[in-house]
């Protein structure tokens, strides 16, 4: 009779994949390092497959593990839910919770309320580009993510927090800053400062520009919103982005581009298997309660075109 898959094996496997270390995984789950090694060795032998790539001092998930890692993490989270209910401590959530975000202005209000509501949780948040965020979520690297895209990815569960319209950030004194919106003909004349190619804003912006057959003058590609805004302030060029990225800037003006193709949304997302787990469900509830506050009023479309 074939041996059954054990929860201990999956727990050990997920911890090693996340830490990239047998020693750290053993420390986290409270067993010895040889025990973790034996659990994973037995699992790989049982299914005649390799789940971890061991190259020198580096330990990473194989493609086969990456494909199911989100399901393993969901199973572990559901086990925690059962344990909490049986212990009659449903309101004392504890453990680790990992959040990825592309816009701090949207993520931080939700994070602040969530951390205050569940102080026993060890919450970490990581900034990254939208195009990098989705594979990280699906591989189990994060529990939830804030991302900006034209539509909700098919492999993720989630909902739209706010509308997002792409435009240009300009100094207040810039000649184009007084316009309600900009045409592509005007955009084509301006030196641009953009995020890296993995940025969701850049991807949507350049796709729309190609459809409109507009040549762009991208002067610089930078990694962070803060870096873009700093050079906009110095007069280097116009910054491409969303209104939500710098909502409190008093010396800059956001001017949307007049093109319906540029419409997108800010989403809160998670892997589908994780949606009903306790911590993710409560995080979604917190975001839903904050939805009205996180909707950025300055992103509402304006009437005229410059």
UniProtKB/TrEMBL annotation:
Gene3D superfamilies: 3.40.190.290, Winged helix-like DNA-binding domain superfamily/Winged helix DNA-binding domain (1.10.10.10). The keyword Lipid metabolism does not apply. One of its GO terms (cellular component) is cytosol. PROSITE patterns: HTH_LYSR (PS50931). GO terms for molecular function: DNA binding; DNA-binding transcription factor activity. Keywords: DNA-binding, Transcription, Transcription regulation. InterPro entries: HTH-type_LysR_regulators, LysR_HTH_N, LysR_subst-bd, WH-like_DNA-bd_sf, WH_DNA-bd_sf. It comes from the Bacteria. Signal peptide: none annotated. Residues 5-62 form the HTH lysR-type domain. Belongs to the LysR transcriptional regulatory family. This is Transcriptional regulator, LysR family.
């Amino acid at each position: 009779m074939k041996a059954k898959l054990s929860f201990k094996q999956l727990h050990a496997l997920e911890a090693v994949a996340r830490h990239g270390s047998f020693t750290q995984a053993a420390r986290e789950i409270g067993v010895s390092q040889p025990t973790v090694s034996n659990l994973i060795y037995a699992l790989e032998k049982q299914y005649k497959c390799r789940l971890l790539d061991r190259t020198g001092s580096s330990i990473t998930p194989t493609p086969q593990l990456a494909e199911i890692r989100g399901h393993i993490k969901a199973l572990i989270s559901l086990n925690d839910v059962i344990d909490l209910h049986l212990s009659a401590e449903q309101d004392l959530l504890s453990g680790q919770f990992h959040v990825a975000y592309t816009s701090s202005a949207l993520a931080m209000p939700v994070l602040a309320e969530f951390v205050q509501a569940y102080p026993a949780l060890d919450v970490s948040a990581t900034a990254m580009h939208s195009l990098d965020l989705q594979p990280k979520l699906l591989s189990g690297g994060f529990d939830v993510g804030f991302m900006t895209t034209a539509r909700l990815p098919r492999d993720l569960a989630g909902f739209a927090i706010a509308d997002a319209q792409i435009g240009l950030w300009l100094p207040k004194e810039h000649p184009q800053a007084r316009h309600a919106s900009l045409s592509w003909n005007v955009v084509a004349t301006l030196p641009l400062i953009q995020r890296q190619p993995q940025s969701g804003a850049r991807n949507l912006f350049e796709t729309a520009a190609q459809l409109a057959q507009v040549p762009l003058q991208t002067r610089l590609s930078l990694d962070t919103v803060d870096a873009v805004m700093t050079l906009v302030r110095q007069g280097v060029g116009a910054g491409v982005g969303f209104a939500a990225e710098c909502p409190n800037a008093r010396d800059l003006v956001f001017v949307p581009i007049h093109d319906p193709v540029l419409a997108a949304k800010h989403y809160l997302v998670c892997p589908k298997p994780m949606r009903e787990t306790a911590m993710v469900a409560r995080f979604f509830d917190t975001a839903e309660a904050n939805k009205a506050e996180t909707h950025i009023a300055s992103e509402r479309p304006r009437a005229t075109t410059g």
